[in-house]
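A quick aside before the break. I want you to see a complete sequence-to-structure record at least once, exactly as it would be stored in a machine-readable document. Don't worry about memorizing anything.
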Amino acid sequence: MTIAGRLQTDVKKMLPIWAVMVGGVLAAIFTVRQNAQSYLQAGIVERSHASAVAQVAYFAGVHDWRKLLESRGLSESGEVKLTGKPGDFKNDPLLLSARSKFETSLSIYPSQLDVHSKLAQLAYWNDEEGRAYYHLGMQDLQVGEKDQAEINFLRSMELSPGDHAAGLALAELLAAKGDWVGSEEVLQRLGTEVSESGPGLFLRGEYELNRSNAAEGFALLRKSLDKNPERVEFYQRYLNYVQLSPELLEHLEFLEKTLEGSQTVSTPPYHRIALLYLQKGEFEKARSVYLRILEFNQQHVGIYMELAQVEYELGNSERARQHLERALSMDYGQFLEQLKRQDLEDLRGIAPQTMVKE
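That is the input. The structure line, written in C-alpha cells, reads:
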C-alpha cells in the first residue's frame, strides 16, 4: 500500500475515536462545572492523557472567563494589564471557577502564554493585588521580560508578604541570571518553611552544586524531587548538572524511577534521559524509556527514528525498519531531516528503497 493510502486508512480508523474525544471535551467544557481533577474522576479523560486534562481545564476556564466578562458588560482585551479596581468582583462564583480551572491547567503545562495574564486580572478583581503582580511577573518571564518580572515580583512581595510564590519566583529568576548570592538572600528571607519546600530545596541544591559541593547538591535535588515529583522543570534542570557526572547512570535511573512513580507524562525529560542512555551505549535502558514515551506520545518523528537506532544496535533490524516506516508515514520532511541529523547510514541500508529518496 502506498504511504498516501496507508495514511487514508489510518485517518478513517481514527475518525470515530476523534469524534468521541471531541464530544467528551465539548461536554466537559459546557456542562461540567468542576475542575480537571473531577473530570478525571468522572472518567471523561484518563490520567495518562495529561494534555487532554490541561486542555479541558483551560477551555472550561476560558468559558467561565468569558461568561464573567459578559455578565459585567466587559469586552476582552489583548493587552496584558490590570483593568478596573481591586475587589471589583470579589468572590464572584464565575471568577472563582475560572481561576480554579486555569490553575489546574497551569499545574500541568506551566508555560501557557495567556493563562498568567488572565489569572492576574482575576486576582486583581478578587482583591488579591499582590497575587495579581505575581502572575504579571510570571507572564513577563514567559515573554523574556526578566527585568520587568523582577519589578513585579518585588511589588507582589511588598503587597502580600505572607504569599511566598513571588519570593520563590524571584529567587529562581536571580539564580537563572547568575546572581546566586542574591537568590540565596531572598530564599533565606522567606524562612525555613519555604527553604524546606520542594522548590526551596531545589534552589539550595543548585547553590551547593555551584559551590562544587556535588554530594550535598545532588542530595538536596533528590529530596526536592521526592517532595514534588510532578515538577517537570526540576528534571530538566537536574539533567543540566549530570551530563559530566561519573555517576551519570545512577542519576538517570533515579530520575527515570521518580518520573515513572509521579505518573508525569511529559516528553522532554524522558527524551533527554533516553538520549543520555543511548550516548552511553545503554541500549536496553534507552529502549525502555523510548517505549515509555510512546505510551503517551505517538506523534514525535524523532522518537521513532532514535528507537530505530536503538533496535538496530540491539540486532533487531526488522523492528528498526518498522519504526522507520512509522516515522516516514508521519512526516517525510522531518524523517529526512532526522536521518541526516543522526547520520545513520546503517539505517539507510535497512530501509526500503522507496523510503529514502535522493
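Two observations worth writing down. Residues 1-48, 352-358 have pLDDT under 50 and may be disordered. The CA atoms of residues 204 and 220 lie 7 Å apart. We'll return to this after the break.
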